[in-house]
Amino acid sequence: MVAAGGLPIRRGGRYGGAMRYPLSAAATLLLALSTTAIAQQAEDGELVLATPESLGVTPEQFAKMGFAKGAMIRRETSKSRRSFGYIEFGEAVEQPQTPPATRDVAPGAVLAQQQVRIEQRRWRVAAPIAIGAPFNTILEAETRFLHLTDAADGSRPCARNVPYKPYTPAQDAAGNIFPVICLHGRDADGRYRTARFLPYYPARAQPRDVAIAPVELEPIAPGVVDPHFPALIAIRRLRVVKLDADGMQISVERMVKQTSAAAPLDVKGLPDTAFHTLGTHRIPLRSGAATTIDGLTLTLRQHGSVWEVESTGALAPWGQVDANRTELIFGDEVFGPVPE
Question: For 181, what's the count of Cα atoms within 13 Å in the CB-facing half-sphere?
Fold first, then answer.
């Protein structure tokens, strides 16, 4: 199963059909290329005129991007895209929302809800990083880094460009472009001493290592809002979908969404279609009838013509990150790994 943006989703260890979720595994890479690079590499990507339509943004968002009139961009395609590694995630943080002990029930009522917040492993650098020949470039102070991992280079921090903001990647004398810069050579003091430039086209150029003055990165604390790194919020809820003479039907639903807010995501304004149904439970319409869903017991009580639900216990912890920090596990669903 593959989500929008290339995020694989597995259920029970098998891939299913396509589903769409509001997740962007990696922002479209917008490269401001030199004439030499465009002439040499045009056949490998998709060169398009920079417009709101070609970028999938509103005219207002496009105006803020600062493109010159007639600017061309290289937009990634399924054929041209290469992965520079898989994103590493931090710990899953449960944001519990305790349901009331009792409440009236009616179709649409949410009986319980929990949120899990997961952020990427992210860092910042306080001072500029000067990088010498052959690229002669500078990573500015406050440059953000995220941790990527793959079989070739292992786990390492890589500079993160502002999503959807065009930038000029490093180029060598032959016009090969190197859009990603990672730090290597970490010693016992925790500082990095090598900048590795990763080529966009591995068939044409090899990674290039450049020695740098020792660099120490500062972690960005969990919960700190940073537009470079939107957090992933997964929500599970129990919702009444039907109440009739046969009983009360409860739907177990979940959604996954990105957010730049620090507070728990408010889903009150979202349509029910934004949620995916994981399963249903039915309680007979009888006072005292009960069901237990993953640690939470719901018991029906009748008071005259009014039906209420008593809640005892709590939903068990739901989300977690695997040992490699590249996959997100929610029950029997596995999301990832996410290529950058």
Answer: 26
